[in-house]
Amino acid sequence: MKQKTSIKLRLLLLIAAAFIIRPGFSQTPVITLNLANANTNVSPMLYGLMTEEINHSYDGGLYAELISNRIFKDSKTEPEGWSLVKDNPSAEAAIKLIGAEEHVPNDERRNAINGAMQACLRLTVEKADGRVGIANEGYWGIPVKPSTTYKASFFIKGTARTPPPRWPWEPKPTTPELPDIENNTAGPITVSIESNDGKTVYATGTINLEKSIYWKQYEVNLTTAADVTPTKDARFVISTDRVGVYYFNLVSLFPPTYNNQPNGFRPDLMQMLVNMKPKFLRFPGGNFLEGPKITDAFPWKETLGPIANRPGHNGSWGYRATDGMGLLEFLEWTEDMGAEPLLAIYAGYSLDGDHIDAGPLLKPYVDDALDEIEYVIGDTSTYWGAERAEDGHPEPFKLKYVEIGNEDWFDRSKSYDGRFNQFRTAIEAKYPQLICISTISRKQFPQMKYLLSKTPEVVDEHYYRDSWDMWENASQFDTYDRNGPKIFVGEWATREGAPTTNLNAALGDAAWMTGMERNSDLVIMSCYAPLFVNVSKDSVTGKRAWQWNSDLIGYDALNSYGSPSYYVQKLFSHYLGNKIVPATAANIPMQKAPLSRRDSAEGKAPKSVPTIFYSATMNDTTGTLYLKIVNITAKKQEVKINLDGNGKVAPEAALIVVKGDKPSETNTIIDRKRIIPETETIKGIKKSFSRKLDPYSVSIFEIKTSK
Ligand code: AHR
């Protein structure tokens, strides 16, 4: 009995020893690339951008306008963003929002400038005693930079105040009549950018207000001195020292814009996008396309022409959109980046769940989409093509893909099949060269059996996941049916970190992108979302600028930065060949995800994911090979890389790495370059070579090969 036990014990010890010493025997991971068989094309449209008005992406973001609530429509009750300025406390003055409420009395309504600008701001000065005016706080501040010229413009009129005429039989007012104010308003009006306490004036100018009861638009340039210290703690002020009643509308202030375009874009943000080399831009949404209600859908026709004709509309993310970024600005933005538009058209379903059934009621919406497409690609002999020329862009834009709606899997009315097909039939009949994208994929939503009687050519799949989910599903496209529709991954992100993502999210993204890249015969386009976030939260009202955590590019009024995910996007797009290199791997260690309390209570097994992810593409003209490898662990991991094929390999290569010490490491508006790519030249590249991958890293090898 005793002997039996000791044999058992020895056996057990042996087995245990085998487990303990196993790491010593663990084999090096091997990635083998078959260079000779790099025949499948990488989709030429693989990496693009997705955009919508969320997190103050445009107003307070890319759109360079610095004045918030410029046509006073943001609130029906308050002149949001505006305040009264009195240099001397003895001054008697007040500001009031005019004509913004639902039912506007006639005496106020007559201040409307046009159908877009019906509300305005009134400044009443009874006693000036120095400078009195109106101030705008901007979008979480006005950015002040040295040697910079800002273009200010605004509509203004100055009048007198006399009591309104009354019929003799009308009852007398219960409150005392306000005293008359003479029309002393004509004369110089000062315009300035100054510190919030008014003590430092960074730039100033004047306009000469004419004596007139009619609105007139004035313009003035304001230039800062060379020795100004950059700040965003500044305001924009229009002021007078004369009593009178002043009305203001469309108050605008533009800093220099990208390529000096009028009504243009913020140069730092544009440059970051251009550096990503996007192949397409999906716009205008996202939820922003649909609007909370059917009446809030993106009103593309009202976004055209001079900004004075744009009323703006209710956005989908809790604030009003100026529509300064209108359809033409989206198209020109796309063109400036060297990309193609991927136009999302409103398809009769909005976020609160309302929809329009296919059939005659949907026809006006289909016609509207056809008009919109004509605006984009019609030549100048067409009605909307001529409008585009009139707006300053005679050349038709490029367009291949039109997306019908957004995330219609939320539509529980089962109407998408009919809606999609009605749009598709009409669009294909007029524009056979266009490809209509469905927002529902049967593969992603197999339970939605009623969907899409006719298989669409391309379907849009969205994936917002945590890093473990990304790592677990990074190979999901390996097994997709190649006879089904092509895949557009129109929104996706690893959602970790706020407001912008952290290194762990970037590792999730990179792993996921290796899967899309390896399968880019099927995944023809992809774009991360959301693209932009204004990270400001320190306003007077305490209202923060963003609604969605985990975004790609962060900024405030003054500065901008890329998240670690941004750099991964940029590198993946930059270092990309035109052929997929078949790759296999062996000995990749696996890693178990920690179990959540809920999962352990439910007895679920932990997820097991690979610790290394990879993809390879090649440029068949230059022979450059791009190998991307992601190490998601805290340890250095050695990998052996085999380059199979008859060709030669240059002994030196470029290695570009994004890495950090901790998964939670990140960039912020204060610490903007903590995680950025590092490039080095590495030696010893052969047909078979080894390399230790840094912990928590994304490595891109740029290797020269020749036949
Ligand atoms: O990207 C943020 C939102 O996520 C988009 O507006 C919407 O399409 C999705 O639900």
What brief labels describe this structure?
alpha/beta; binds alpha-L-arabinofuranose; 12 helices; 36 strands; 707 residues; 8-stranded parallel barrel; 7-stranded antiparallel beta sheet
Give a verbal description of the structure.
With 707 residues, the chain is of the alpha/beta class. Strands 3-14-17-18-19-20-21-22 form an eight-stranded parallel beta barrel, surrounded by six helices. β15 and β16 (320-321) form a beta hairpin. α10 (503-518) packs parallel to α11 (564-574). The protein starts with a helix and ends with a strand. The structure holds alpha-L-arabinofuranose (AHR). Alpha-L-arabinofuranose is lined by residues 52, 54, 285-287, 406-407, 491, 529-530, 548.
Task: Outline the secondary-structure elements.
Blueprint: H1 2-25, E1 30-34, E2 40-41, E3 47-50, E4 82-86, E5 92-98, H2 106-109, E6 120-127, E7 132-136, E8 149-159, E9 187-195, E10 201-209, E11 216-223, E12 234-240, E13 244-254, H3 267-274, E14 280-283, H4 287-290, E15 313-314, E16 320-321, H5 327-336, E17 340-345, H6 363-377, H7 383-390, E18 401-404, H8 416-430, E19 435-438, E20 458-465, H9 467-473, E21 486-494, H10 503-518, E22 523-528, E23 532-534, E24 553-555, E25 560-562, H11 564-574, E26 579-580, E27 583-586, E28 590-592, H12 597-601, E29 608-610, E30 612-618, E31 624-631, E32 637-644, E33 648-659, E34 678-682, E35 688-693, E36 697-706
Parallel strand pairs: 1-32, 3-14, 3-22, 14-17, 17-18, 18-19, 19-20, 20-21, 21-22, 23-24
Antiparallel strand pairs: 1-27, 2-26, 4-7, 5-6, 6-13, 7-12, 8-11, 8-13, 9-10, 9-12, 15-16, 24-25, 26-30, 28-29, 30-31, 31-36, 32-35, 33-34, 33-36
Helix pairs in contact: 6-7, 6-8, 9-10, 10-11
